[in-house]
Write the structure tokens for this entry.
Amino acid sequence: MTVEQIESGAEKYIVENLSGNTEEMEVKVKYEGRDQELPKGKYRLVYVLPGGTVRTGRVPFSVRVEMDDGKYRLLHMYATISSYQDVVKLRKAFRRGQVLTVDDVETDRVKTTKPVFDAISQVEDAIGFEVSQNLELGKILTFGVLKKPYIVKRGDHILLVMDKGSMKITVPGIAKEQGVRGSTISVENLQSKKVVYGQILDEKTVQIDF
């Protein structure tokens, strides 16, 4: 049994036991031993994976060659398991607080032994979001480094909209807090001087519920 046979057999076994889409993965086995001269007769190969699972990265495992006479040989090797991942990367460096546009990002398909957790795979999921830290050129974007930008800031003059039956009442107000679209903030009614709470509709409008 040659080194090539040992490696190809191990690769086939791992591919057949990988979880997920095997078309998105690549397996390379390295056996650092020599060709094995086996006695005549039948034998079987028993593969032993650590913990009974296959993962990405460098995976040590062994193959037990069991012969008819009860004897066996244990061959140690390792596999490098890579996966392909669609990601969104920065086309330039960004500073904390800047908002992403379609010209700032691009998609890429990368091969890695350590998939990026929480990576963004579609450009539309990044556009319009604000980066929460300084990021270098080529950085793979994750949901953890993006946040919705504040469209209303504390002290902004806004319009308070209140629905009462079939009537819509609008009064001037001022934001007491900052917030993103859809969030609830405290605002001051400049006519009544009362502080109430409402939901941000856009950068100039807050919906007040009675």
User: Anything to note?
Assistant: The chain has three domains: 3-82, 84-147, 157-208. The chain has one helix and twelve strands. The helical segments are 3-17.
